[in-house]
Amino acid sequence: MTLKIAVLPGDGTGPEVVAESLKVLEAIASLEAFGYETTSFDFGGDRYLASNHIIDDNDIATLRDDFDTILLGAVGHPDVPPGVLEKGLLLRLRFALDQYINLRPVKLYPGVECPLKDKGPGDIDFDVIRENTEDLYCGAGGFLRKGTPQEVATQEMIATRFGVERCLRYAFDLCRRKKANGKGRGQLTLVHKTNVLTFAADLWFRAFEEIGDRDYADIKRDYNHIDAACMWFVKNPEFYDTVVVPNMFGDIITDLGAMIQGGMGIASGGNINPDPGGTSMYEPIGGSAPKYTGQGVINPLACIGALAMLLQNSGQVAAGDRVENAIRKVTPQLKSMSAGKMGHSTSGVGDLVVAAL
Ligand code: IPM
Ligand code: MG
User: Fold this and answer.
1) Helix H or strand E segment including 47
2) Using the 8-state DSSP alphabet, how is residue 334 labeled?
3) CA 350 – CA 336 distance, rounded (Å)
């Protein structure tokens, strides 16, 4: 079966890192003998500025119906006001394709500099499952008396039992699978703010307890307030195994997670629709880094890691694992994970990964 991949290089350094992922894809497909096809789409800031087109229902139908999965480079353009592409392209895709899981592994690879004193790869190795279609990201809210001194703005935090439950079930299942594969302790931490958000957090907490009691008695349940989780991500990252968190808190805490695993140069994520026939989208967590664009200095490992996740979640587990292991062999060879400080060019790092496959 041929894996059909839609490639959205996007803005800024997106095309440079995607090129390295495609180089690795070509190599791994030949080594693992699987077929694939890629089709590139030019959605992003440049096209928007030239034609006003961001992405429409037809584009979304094409991505959903004609492709198994999507690889995304980066979204964000210095000449486009903030929010236009983020909401119009990235969030639009996540919502329209119902990618209700944002899976963000936090793994410190060997030889990667960690800002936390005395923490090594054995201490930082967990998964964050961020709910990806609800919460403050729904866009619910509005203005009253906009632009006047009496202006009111609201932005609503939405939690539905359906949306929360499907996210929790994915997290419980992943936690269980990791334990079965010797990769986890079977401990799932819910992160929220039950002491203040007594409606939304209460729904999450009750669902967590009920589902956990009924269907996942083998999984140890743990709960952190979001502020405490920020503290413990820094102080005791080794405590975490699998973390489940609503969208907005998940956005914030996964940037913290990216930093303790060595920065945006190495942090990958998947926007996953785990339902049968669902179309998922994998991306480096970092942005389009306009200041480094076109210089060949950006770190492609986050995007190559996104490719590894794409393969692991698209029926090519062995190939994905092999790419991930190659990244582990390459990280000790780089001077730094930061753009311009790797001791290698962007394509040089891609070549190292290919060589390590
Ligand atoms: C992320 C980003 C996005 C988000 C932005 C660009 C809309 O920060 O993927 O974490 O908030 O989800
Ligand atoms: Mg973010």
Assistant:
1) helix 45-51
2) S
3) 15
Give me the sign of the Cα torsion angle 161, 164, 170, 174.
negative
Phi, psi of 24 (to 5 degrees): -70, -40
Q: Quote the pTM value.
A: 0.97
The Cα 208–Cα 217 span in angstroms is 12
pLDDT band at 91 (very low <50, low <70, confident <90, very high): very high
| Angle ∠(317,39,267) on CA atoms, nearest 5 | 50
Cβ atoms < 10 Å from Cβ of 116: 16
Q: Is the CB of 86 under 6 A from ligand 1?
A: yes
pLDDT-above-70 percentage for the chain: 100
Q: CA triplet 121, 239, 164: central angle to 5 degrees?
A: 110
Q: DSSP class of residue 88?
A: I
Any atom of ligand 1 within 6 Å of the Cβ of 91: yes
Q: What is the pLDDT of residue 25?
A: 98
Ligand 1: which of 86, 100, 129, 155 to mutate, judged by most atoms within 8 Å of the beta carbon? 86
> Residue 86: pLDDT above 90?
yes
Give the Cα separation of 293 and 289 in Å (integer): 7
pLDDT on residue 173 = 98
Closest CA to 18 of 31, 3, 5: 5
Q: What are phi and psi of 302, to 5 degrees?
A: -65, -40
Q: How far apart are the first and last CA of the chain?
A: 22
Cβ-count burial 283-309 (b if 16+ within 10 Å, e if not):
bbbbbbbbebbeeebbbbbbbbbbbbb
Residues 6+ apart with CB under 8 A from 117: none
With cut-offs at 50, 70 and 90, classify the pLDDT of residue 1: confident
The total number of residues written for the chain in this structure: 357
Number of the ligand closest to the Cα of 95: 1
